[in-house]
């Protein structure tokens, strides 16, 4: 994905749906995303199963997990699953990865100590990349070990080196992980100002590690609602996010979840562009007509956005 232009993706909310995905593929949308938990409090799907549906029910767009809670999965199993999906889809899969922790019982149920989720994630990233290099490989780590094994995808379509691993989160450990180990950065619930700070942190951490960030993907998962009626859009966000994230006041929701008319949302997203975002995953913050939100975002918000002069010149 090129950094010299602004692109949109869409979150398939609440669940992947064949007709919804077909309609989105007709729009100027370049990716579709879904995440998932193992033991969520409501009846929602799991990340790899949802990613499988996205892969099967689309033909053109990039498909991604946003996000997959990596410490809950054995990386050898996951490496095989993602390799097969990437191969079957012709190299369209990306994995947004996070550490989770909001549902402690998920970790207890699979025997993963909550306090280990960070280092397990770091080592799991190493295991995935080792297996995706091809050939017979070995690994001896704190959490995972194997000797002289080879992963083979079901078809030759997996990209060399495997699918991109896009790090998600909001806190400094996630930023450091993105800088050292990730192929991109996909935070959520960040204001434009906070996103700009994250860019500074990741850039500085990468420099410390001697890493060149050429090709690194600067993304943002943005809850929003776009309507002809701006008041309805703002009511969408309050109803969708207000209770879920601790009854945040409207002014805070406005900073992290743009809502309004296409003109109003474009003005807010432009602030993210100026902060460094190049690919938005638009997550409709509404319980009704999510396709309508994505359609307006892709056809009337995206054309209003522009790269900063220093980048576009």
From TrEMBL:
SUPFAM superfamilies: Bacterial luciferase-like (SSF51679). InterPro entries: F420-G6PD/mer, Luciferase-like_dom, Luciferase-like_sf. Keywords: Oxidoreductase. Pfam families: Bac_luciferase. The keyword Oxidoreductase applies. Coiled coil: none annotated. Residues 19-279 form the Luciferase-like domain. This is LLM class flavin-dependent oxidoreductase.
């Amino acid at each position: 994905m090129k950094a010299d232009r602004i692109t949109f993706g869409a979150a398939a909310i609440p669940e992947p749906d064949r007709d919804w995905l077909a309609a989105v593929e007709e729009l100027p949308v370049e990716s579709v995303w879904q995440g998932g938990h193992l033991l969520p409090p409501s009846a929602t799907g799991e990340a790899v199963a949802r990613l499988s549906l996205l892969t099967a029910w689309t033909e053109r767009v990039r498909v991604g997990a946003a996000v997959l809670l990596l410490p809950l999965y054995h990386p050898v199993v996951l490496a095989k699953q993602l390799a097969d999906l990437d191969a079957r889809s012709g190299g369209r899969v990306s994995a947004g990865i996070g550490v989770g922790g909001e549902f402690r019982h998920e970790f207890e149920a699979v025997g993963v100590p909550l306090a280990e989720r960070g280092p397990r994630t770091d080592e799991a990233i190493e295991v995935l990349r080792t297996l995706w290099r091809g050939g017979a490989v070995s690994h001896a780590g704190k959490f995972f070990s194997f000797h002289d094994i080879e992963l083979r995808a079901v078809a030759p379509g997996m990209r060399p080196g495997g699918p991109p691993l896009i790090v998600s989160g909001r806190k400094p450990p996630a930023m450091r992980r993105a800088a050292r180990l990730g192929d991109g950065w996909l935070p959520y619930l960040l204001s434009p100002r906070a996103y700009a700070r994250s860019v500074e942190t990741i850039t500085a951490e990468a420099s410390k590690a001697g890493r060149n960030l050429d090709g690194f993907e600067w993304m943002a998962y943005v809850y929003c609602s776009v309507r002809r009626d701006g008041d309805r859009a703002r009511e969408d966000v309050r109803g969708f996010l207000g209770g879920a994230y601790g009854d945040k006041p409207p002014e805070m929701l406005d900073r992290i979840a743009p809502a309004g008319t296409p003109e109003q949302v474009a003005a807010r997203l432009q602030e993210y562009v100026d902060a460094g975002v190049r690919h938005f995953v638009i997550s409709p913050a509404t319980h009704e007509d999510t396709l309508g939100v994505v359609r307006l975002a892709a056809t009337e918000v995206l054309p209003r956005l522009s790269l900063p002069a220093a980048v576009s010149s």
